[in-house]
């Protein structure tokens, strides 16, 4: 297992900002794809927030485009999610994920999540 540990969640007023961190306990270089997902209260499905794969441009969910930024720093084994202009609809548990390998050898890893609450 390659534990992923999120931090940085909290409670913030609408319009505010938070920065989430996801620390990879082993070399982040093994992860060719990393992403942030979120799971809102009462919803079973996880929603893609932002994704980085290979050298491609980041992919963002429609609801966060222009407000959130995903960055990975391999020198610190850490991925970040900068969240600006937060809205109450952003309230959710935010989860970090990473994938190693391809095809038959692909493996997915998930963190435990960090709670983000936005109040108006």
How much of the sequence lies in strands comes to over 45%
Query: Segments where pLDDT lies below 50 for 5+ residues?
Result: none
Largest beta-sheet characterization: 7 strands, mixed
Shape: globular
Q: What does this molecule look like?
A:
- The chain is mainly β.
- 0% of the residues lie in helices and 52% in strands.
- It has no helices and eleven strands.
- The chain has strands spanning 4-7, 10-13, 18-24, 33-39, 47-53, 59-60, 68-73, 78-83, 92-100, 107-110, 114-119.
- The strands form two sheets. Strands 2, 4, 5, 6, 9, 10 and 11 form a seven-stranded mixed beta sheet that branches. The protein has a four-stranded antiparallel beta sheet with strand order 1-3-8-7, with no helix packed on it.
- The mean pLDDT is 94.
Features:
single chain; 120 residues; mainly beta; 11 strands; 0% helix; 52% strand; globular
In short:
By secondary structure, the protein is an all-beta fold. Helix content is 0%, strand content 52%.
Helix-strand layout with pairing:
Layout lengths: L3 E4 L2 E4 L4 E7 L8 E7 L7 E7 L5 E2 L7 E6 L4 E6 L8 E9 L6 E4 L3 E6 L1
Parallel strand pairs: 2-11
Antiparallel strand pairs: 1-3, 3-8, 4-5, 4-9, 5-6, 7-8, 9-10, 9-11
């Amino acid at each position: 297992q390659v534990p992923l540990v999120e931090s940085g969640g909290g409670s913030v007023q609408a319009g505010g900002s938070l920065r989430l961190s996801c620390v990879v306990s082993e070399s982040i270089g093994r992860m060719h794809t990393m992403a942030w997902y979120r799971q809102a209260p009462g919803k079973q499905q996880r929603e893609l927030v932002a994704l980085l794969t290979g050298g491609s441009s980041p992919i963002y969910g429609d609801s966060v485009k222009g407000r959130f930024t995903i960055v990975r720093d391999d020198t610190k084994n850490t991925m970040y999610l900068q969240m600006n202009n937060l809205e109450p609809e952003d309230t959710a548990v935010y989860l970090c994920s990473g994938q190693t390998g391809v095809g038959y050898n692909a493996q997915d890893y998930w963190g435990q999540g960090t709670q983000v609450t936005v109040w108006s």
